[in-house]
Design brief:
7-stranded mixed beta sheet, 117 residues, mainly beta
Length: 117
């Protein structure tokens, strides 16, 4: 059974940094064979794709975070990271890790990130 557990959220001041982690278990084969995603959902807004990383290391970023956020994986630790730099109040949201496995999409429970002074 696929399980995703996010951690690392919290309160951070504008301009600060935060690193989110997503521990993945139960993915057939290995995480390196999957496309791992970070999404976020702010109150009253649709869930949006923030960043994505493929098994061969290819990455995608939403325009709003390009140049500030970095997605990476540590396959030995079965963990995907989202390094968030120069954060802005608009980055405030619940951040969720996601992966598609065998036609089904799996989500973690999310971790709250609040950017405020």
């Amino acid at each position: 059974q696929v399980q995703l557990v996010e951690s690392g959220g919290g309160l951070v001041q504008p301009g600060g940094s935060l690193r989110l982690s997503c521990l993945a278990s139960g993915i057939p084969g290995s995480m390196s064979n999957s496309v791992m995603n970070w999404y976020r959902q702010a109150p009253g807004k649709q869930r949006e794709l923030v960043a994505e990383i493929t098994g061969d290391g290819g990455t995608y970023y939403a325009d709003s975070v390009t140049g500030r956020f970095t997605i990476s994986t540590d396959n030995a630790k079965k963990t995907v990271y989202l390094q968030m730099n120069t954060v802005k109040p608009d980055d405030t949201a619940v951040y969720l890790c996601g992966v598609r496995v065998s036609g089904s999409y799996y989500w973690g429970q999310g971790t709250q990130v609040t950017v405020s002074s």
